[in-house]
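Order emerges. One example.
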Amino acid sequence: MDDKNISKIIDSFKAYFKTAGKDSAVIGLSGGIDSAVAAKIAIEALSVSKVKAFFLPYKLSSDQSRIDAEEFADKFKLDLESIYLTDVADKYFELDRNKGMSKLRIGNFLSRLRMNILFDNAAASDSLVVGTSNKTEIILGYGTLYGDSASSVNPIGELYKFQVYELARYFDIPTSIIDKKPTADLWENQTDEDELGFSYRDIDKLLYAILEEGLDKRSILEKFDKKLVDEILKRVEHNSFKRNVPFICSMADTTKAVVNCEVIEIENKNSKYMKNKNIDEIFRSIR
């Protein structure tokens, strides 16, 4: 990442706040690298006095996450508040219908609970919620719908994981955050790479070859392990619906939808109004 691209991200972030008529931000600071980099971009764009961070642990969260979040906040003079999820979450988990909830369901619930808290605090302070999902996660669908994938503005959504690391070093993020294994910290000893089955380094190389270098399937298989290719392609396809939500039914002649991992056209002979039109552009034109 060079200075020019970093400035573009910061300027884009700043411009969005101006367009939205907001001047302050709320962010969940997990102690991980993604939220640290996103928070630093917010600080650079808005000033540290305009950014409020929340650490939102559950009883199974690692104490190291708290230590790392506090170290980041101390280093950059960021206002950090801790809100513990345990009492609220456990009351829901204890309901009869929730006995035997899987780790995945529990993790998704906690992720959405965190985002509820962030959006509520943003509403209280007339702020926008800053997202912390990087491009690698978005492509893979590795995130919780309306949980960690939700936000008002995402400064790192165009950055692969390796670029997030580059930006972390550029911003002098604490090394304890840069060096530790990435984790959503939703249950004990959970790590992203264990769940994904491959390292971010290998995944990023593959995604970059496909999306940035435009390699075809044959060329990809010549450069990468077949298991990696097959599993990542399967994951990207299986989670395609996460990148196109919510699906809004159309009254145009045709519209495209993802059904069972296939892009299909749905015919509709009703009104053509608004077909291929952008709502924001229409309203700007009559303002």
Q: What stands out?
A: The radius of gyration is 20 Å. Confidence is low (pLDDT under 50) at residues 268-276. The chain is about 50% helix and 10% strand.
